[in-house]
Each structure stands twice: as structure tokens, then as C-alpha cells.
Amino acid sequence: MLGISLFAVMGTLLFYIYFMAKSYPRQELSAVFALSFFVYNFDNDTMSAPYMLAPMAELSHRPLRELIETFSGPGLSGCSEYFTEMISAGAFIAGGPFESWYADNGPCPRKIVYQIVGSDPSHLARAASLLDQNECLGIDINMGCSAPAIARTGAGVRWMADIGKAGEMIALARKGVKRRLSVKLRLSTGYALPEGEDEFVYLVRFCRRLEEAGVELITLHPRTGREKFHRTARWDYVSALRKELRIPVAGNGDIADAAGFLARASSGVCDAVMVGRAAVKQPWIFAQARQMEAAGLGAAPLGTGESVAQSGEVFTKMNINIEETGLLFLDLLAKYQPPEFHLSRAQRFFGYFCDNLKWGNYVKTLLNRETELSGIGRAWSGYFREGEE
Ligand SMILES: Cc1cc2nc3c(=O)[nH]c(=O)nc-3n(C[C@H](O)[C@H](O)[C@H](O)COP(=O)(O)O)c2cc1C
Which SUPFAM superfamilies does this one have (predicted)? Predict the structure, then answer.
């Protein structure tokens, strides 16, 4: 009896904390928020802000997740959340031939966040509710992709052009999603704002509408749709946006290494940190940053306006065998992706991973000439036999 009462009291207390933290501005409730955020969803072994792998087309798939997990050790979870590459809502509900590969939630289903993309609200809502039935952490809606093939159809960053439409779509999707519903977006489309207002004022209005419609986390990649990767990510917008919303805000953009990752995570400017391209080049980045964090080697927290390069040198050692890591990736690719995807995925991965090598561009050219995975493996190992010099 006592046990049941204690359980009820604890449950009520936790629910109260969770509710309060989501209902009041964090400035007024930071202590409560900190506890509730821990309860909210992220890993228990998280030390600073949770670490997230960015959704990246042809890159954020099971083989990369498997590879990243091989660097995690006991007590070192590394990556807290794995966003999948964007999944086309229309193709998914139509049951396209490759959809089961996109829906693969291995090797750690509870860390998976399925990202969906599309322009039709009913397709997005249906795909979200179907994916929500899989074991996963949540569903993310892509409002940031500015690739012409996507934006032209009204999907990705084009959602940011119409606050009302985006809000209605989210409200519809919300009805079928029991797990966490999140949105990844940019500062703006980069084109004239419909209301002719200031970019940040518009961004806040947009995000508040999403929040009202049931979004529980926003990831901001602080560039406009037109900028693509041309300009440095403006992290001061991440911290400014976070102050305006009740829900957590994750920051993403231009993190280059574990020191930079840790500096952003411990800076207090965001609730979670997401890394994309650097995690393909250095799949050990999550484990390395955690290792540095555990050893108290954290870089001085960055001010929001500083660039990662200013964070200073942080010494850390991990024994990484680049050749073996590349070969392991090829094995994982063969094991967990359909043959139709092998070449494109391998070339995408090595497009970043080769940057670890002195003659990386030369190796990329060699690998891009190959027409089979086995040829890529031979060319890759051949480079190491020749010696780097
Ligand atoms: C090859 C590639 C594919 C991407 N695909 C997606 C995607 O499917 N969905 C998405 O929201 N963002 C996508 N992005 C953007 C990334 O998620 C991320 O916002 C961007 O790369 C900035 O982070 P970074 O500087 O850490 O790489 C992609 C980026 C790259 C380089």
C-alpha cells in the first residue's frame, strides 16, 4: 500500500515538474526545467547537452549509426539521438520498394528520430503516425531543406513561408503522433517575408505557432534557405530563439571537431547540439567529446558570437585506425543497405571520410571511378599499402 502511494506521489510530482517546465519561461524556472528536461526524454547518461546526429540524405542511415556506436564504450553512450535521413512522406505511405530500409531503426531504436519530408499535410500526418508505431524516440518534420528539388514542391524550407499553413499541418500531424514531435528548420526561407517583417521576429512567430500546435523540440540550423552552406552558421540566433520559446531548442551548424562540439554543448546556449558533416568525417566525434567531457577536458564554453575555431586547443587521444574504419563502413553498408544504394552511399560517405587523409582528394577520385563496393574496398586499402607519403 505504502509502495503504491509513494509511486503515485512520485508520479504526480514528476508530472507536475514536467508540466511546469513546459508551461513557463525557462528564465523563471531554470532549476525545475533542468530536472524536468532530464525526465523529458534524453539519455540518462547524458552529461552536458544531448548530442544528436543530423539528418543527412544518403548519409544518416544504419551503417553510419552502427559505425558511430562502435566507438562508444561502457558508460560512454556517445550519440544521444540519431536523426534519420529525410524520408519522403508520399513515397513512404505509398509503400515504395526501399521504404523498409529507410524505416530501419537499428542498432538503437530508442535513439531514433525519423525525419519526414513532404508538402502534403495529409501525407505528412499519415507517414508520421505510421512511423510513430515503430520503436523510436520521435518524429521530426523537415522544414529546413533548401535543395531545389524539395523546396520547389513546397516541402522543406518552403513551409517557413506560411505560418498558418505550417501550424495547421503540425496540428494535423500531432493527432497521430504519441512520441516526441519535432521540427528542424532554418532562420528563414531567405526570400522576402510575407509580412515584410524582421527575420528574427518572424522566426519567433513561426516557432511559437509550431509550439502551440504541439511541436516539442525545434532544431535551428541558423542559416537562411538561400544561404545553403555559404555563410557561417549564426549561433547567436540559437540562443536568442531559445529565450523566446518554452520548448527545448537544439543548435546545429559548422561544428568541426570534438572540442567544438563540447564547447557548444557546454555553452548553455541550447538544449541539445546536433552535428552533421563532421560526424561523417569523424564518426568517433560523439565518443571523443564525451571522453573529453568525462576527463574534464572541456574547452572553455563559447560565447554565442564566437566561432568554434576560437575555442582553443584541447588535448585528447583516441586511437583511430582510418583504414579499418573505412573498411568496416563498407562491410556495414553491404550488410544493412540494399545493393541499389551501395555505390551512392559509399561515395557520399568517403566524400567526407577521405578528408582525414593527406591526399584525400586523390583518393576520392579513385573511389569515384569504382562501380562496385569490392572495388572501392580494394582502392581504399591500396592507398594505405602505397603509404601516405
Ligand atoms: C549531404 C547532406 C544531406 C543533408 N540532408 C538533410 C536532410 O535529409 N534533412 C535535413 O533536415 N537536413 C539535411 N542536411 C542538413 C544537415 O542536417 C545540417 O543541418 C547541416 O549539414 C549543417 O550541419 P553541419 O554543419 O554539422 O553539417 C543535409 C546536409 C548534408 C551535407
Answer: FMN-linked oxidoreductases
